[in-house]
Amino acid sequence: MATLSVREQEELRREGAAELGATEVVGRTPRQLFWVRFRRDKVALVALAFLVLLVLATILASPITRAVAHPPNAQFPNALDPQFGTPTGPSSTFPFGVDKVGEDVFSRVLYGARVSLEVAFLATFLSVAIGVVLGMTAGYYRGWVDTLISRVIDVTLAFPILLLALGIGSACSLGKGCAGGTVKPGLPTVIVAIVVINWTYIGRIIRGQVLSLREKEFVEAARAAGATDRWILFREILPNLAAPIVVYSTLVVPQNILLEAALSFLGVGINPPQASWGEMIAEATPIFNTAWWFFAFPGAALLLTVLAFNLLGDGVRDALDPRTTP
Predict the structure, then answer these.
(1) CB-based contact 127:199 (threshold 8 Å)
(2) Does 217 reside within a domain?
(3) CA distance 65 to 96
(4) How many CB atoms sit inside 10 A of residue 130's CB?
C-alpha cells in the first residue's frame, strides 16, 4: 500500500472538512447557551422589559413627579370633593386621583414601587448570602456543625411565615426599634423580618447540593493539592452552585414583595407618611366601593410587578435547565 505524501494528506483533509462543514458543531459557553435559551422566551423578555422600565421609573421618581404630578406627601385639600370631603378620581391634574387627605395617588404609587424594589433586592441579597454561607458550611463540614445549622433551620421553618414576620415586625415597629436601636421601625424592620425567614429555604437547598459536590473528584483533587477548606468552598464548590442560587433568587423576589405588602397592610411594615403599596391598599379598603382608584392603582402595580418577577424567574429557570434544547 502506497504511502500518501504530506500534500496529498492535506488535500484529503480539506476535502473531508468541506464535506462535513455543514454539520460542524460550534462550541458554546454556558453564558451563550443561557442567552440563546432565554431570548426564545418572549414572555420572559416582556417581563424583563417591564421590570427595567419600573426600575428606571423609581430612579427618576423625583423628576417624573415634578413634571406630571405632585410630591408624594403633599396634601391638597382643595382636590377633595367640596361637598363631602371625599377622595376624587383621576383627572388631568391628578392622573390617579387623590386619597383621603388629598395626596396624589400617582406619586405615592411611584414611590411605593421604590420601597418594594428596595425590600425585594436588599432582603433577597441578604437572605441568599446568609443561606449560601451557612448551607455550604453545614454541607461541607457535616457533623455537629451540620446538626446545629439544620436544627436552627427546622425550628425557624416550624413557625408560620406570616405569624413569625408579624412577631418580629411588632417587636421592632415601636419606639426606637429592637436590638438596641439597631433595627429601626419601618424599612429596616421589614428587611430583617424577611431575612430571618427566607435564609432557611436557600440554606437547605445549598446544603443538599454541597453534600453531593463535596464527594466529587475535583474537590478530592483540590484537597490532595493542599487547598484550604475556604479555598475549596469559595473557589471550587461555590461556582457550581451558581445556577440554583440564581434561580432561587429570581423566584423569591416576588415573595418578598408580597410579604412586605402584607406587613404594611397589617400595620407593622412601612410607616406613614412613607408610601407603600400594602399601606395604601389598607387605607383604601374601607372606601374601595366609592374610591376605586385609591385601591385599584396600587393593587394593579403590586399585581403586575409580582407577575413580572414570577415570569422572569420561570424564564431564567428554563434557560438554566441543561435539559432544554439550545
Answers:
(1) yes
(2) yes
(3) 12
(4) 17
Dihedral sign of CA atoms 250, 268, 62, 300 in order: positive
Instruction: Supply the range of the domain harboring residue 138.
Output: 42-78+94-320
How many C-beta atoms lie closer than 10 Å to residue 281's C-beta? Answer: 22
Coil, strand or helix at 216 = coil
Q: pTM here?
A: 0.84
Q: What angle do CA 131, 321, 51 make, to 5 degrees?
A: 70
Please state, in angstroms and rounded to a whole number, the distance separating the CA atoms of residues 136 and 219: 14
How many angstroms separate the CA atoms of 151 and 166, rounded?
22
Question: For 109-140, what is each residue's pLDDT tens digit?
Answer: 999 999 889 888 999 999 999 999 999 999 99
Domain CATH number, residue 114:
1.10.3720.10
| pLDDT tens profile 246-281 | 888 888 899 899 998 988 888 888 877 788 899 889
CB 270 within 8 A of CB 276: yes
All three cell numbers of 191, joined, read: 428587611
Q: How many domains does the chain have?
A: 1
Instruction: Supply φ then ψ for residue 177, to 5 degrees.
Output: 95, -150
Contact 309, 47 (CB under 8 A): yes
What cell numbers appear for 280 in the block? 395604601
